[in-house]
Amino acid sequence: MDWLEWGYWGLFLASFLSATVLPFSSEAVLAGLLYGGGDPVLSVSVATLGNWLGGMSTYWIGHLGKWEWIEKYLRVEQDKVIEWRPKIDRYGSFFAVLSFLPIIGDVIALALGFFRSNIWLTGFWMFVGKLARYLVVYGGMLAV
Fold this sequence. Notes:
By secondary structure, the chain is an all-alpha fold. The chain has eight helices and no strands.
């Protein structure tokens, strides 16, 4: 599938999926769209919104606490989520700012949902982290 042919919808979909079940590089799609002449503000906004909604979907899957789904669709074992309990107890919703990180970001979002972290604060900090991620990508492209 050529994500760039889909334009902003492709960027949204790639960003959403990369924050949920697929190990996918939404940064590459963002870079391709920007190199192809995409509007920087709209591109970063679409990528951030898609990735944030994907992360919040992962949060809600954790909130549901159905381990069959979590292990089957997200391929995260219960022990991995339980390991995050002390960190979430210590940092709370602020920890969501790190949900943009590869591999562990999904576990963070899932654990925040599972341990019923405040949804409003989690959503806010998750958005901040994901926005920062795409601003860094854009800034890196400007530096090249």
